[in-house]
């Protein structure tokens, strides 16, 4: 695996989402996705791949509402597998369970898309080696073409036993209300670089990754923020390589007029971010 999810890069660590039925969601995330429970309480379950690090936390708040349409918020969070053989085992498992899913080859990666029972979007993917990516003028070549599932399945005969310990949160893709505003926040404020343009979307990263954070207006320009108690993204973490790098980001955010309290900020569309080291 390449080293895009460790120092000196800044990357997504964990996502925290609302669900309407915690027991149903735990069943889905453990049996279908293959995460394990790290901690569990009456209204929350913290899920992990390696038994130590939180990757996804599920919350069932009082008075939770179903997913609301046409709002800013989560498009999908993306779980990155260490190797192609891991994707083969996961794909075979999905085919055996009869779970509905989508799939795509993005040149830089091979991806499977699946919705949780509440409609929260999930991508499970593996990266092609970065030496195989094509760059032109600082932009990486990405597309959406048909995935060669047979080729992936032929990679390995291994049975799926859950997500491997080396699994990380690869990226997050968000609906925003306005691309220029989002770009100002993520680029000038947080210090990410734009590495790809797509109709009504930008892909941003640190350290030359194909994307750590993608932003789109596919729910409509001016899409309102997600109602607080509804299904969707509560917050995600950005992991900085050092205290110094985090302080620099805080200063830049304050410089563009973004509020930061106790290392928590939110983008102009209301997506909340916890800045951690």
From TrEMBL:
SUPFAM superfamilies: Glyoxalase/Bleomycin resistance protein/Dihydroxybiphenyl dioxygenase. Signal peptide: none annotated. InterPro entries: Glyas_Bleomycin-R_OHBP_Dase (IPR029068), Glyas_Fos-R_dOase_dom (IPR004360), VOC_core (IPR037523). It comes from Domibacillus iocasae. Residues 11-127, 168-277 form the VOC domain. It comes from the Bacteria. This is Glyoxalase. Coiled coil: none annotated. Transmembrane segments: none annotated. Gene3D superfamilies: 2,3-Dihydroxybiphenyl 1,2-Dioxygenase, domain 1. It holds the Pfam family Glyoxalase.
């Amino acid at each position: 695996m390449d080293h895009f999810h460790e120092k000196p890069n800044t990357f997504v660590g964990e996502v925290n989402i609302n669900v309407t039925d915690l027991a149903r969601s735990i069943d889905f995330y453990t049996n279908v996705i293959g995460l394990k429970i790290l901690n569990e309480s009456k209204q929350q379950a913290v899920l992990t791949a390696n038994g130590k690090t939180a990757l996804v936390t599920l919350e069932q708040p009082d008075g939770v509402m179903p997913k609301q349409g046409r709002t800013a918020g989560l498009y999908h969070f993306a779980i990155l597998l260490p190797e192609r053989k891991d994707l083969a085992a996961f794909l075979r498992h999905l085919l055996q369970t009869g779970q509905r899913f989508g799939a795509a080859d993005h040149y830089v990666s091979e991806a499977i898309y699946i919705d949780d029972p509440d409609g929260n979007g999930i991508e499970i993917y593996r990266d092609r080696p970065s030496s195989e990516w094509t760059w032109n003028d600082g932009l990486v070549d990405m597309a959406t073409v048909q995935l060669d599932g047979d080729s992936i399945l032929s990679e390995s005969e291994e049975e799926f036993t859950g997500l491997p310990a080396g699994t990380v949160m690869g990226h997050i893709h968000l609906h925003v209300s306005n691309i220029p505003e989002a770009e100002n926040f993520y680029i000038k404020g947080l210090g990410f670089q734009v590495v790809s343009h797509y109709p009504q979307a930008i892909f941003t990263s640190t350290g030359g990754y194909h994307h750590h954070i993608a932003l789109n207006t596919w729910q409509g320009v001016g899409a309102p923020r997600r109602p607080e108690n509804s299904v969707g993204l509560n917050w995600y973490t950005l992991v900085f390589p050092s205290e110094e790098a985090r302080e620099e980001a805080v200063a830049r955010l304050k410089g563009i007029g973004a509020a930061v309290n106790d290392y928590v900020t939110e983008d102009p569309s209301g997506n909340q971010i916890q800045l951690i080291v």
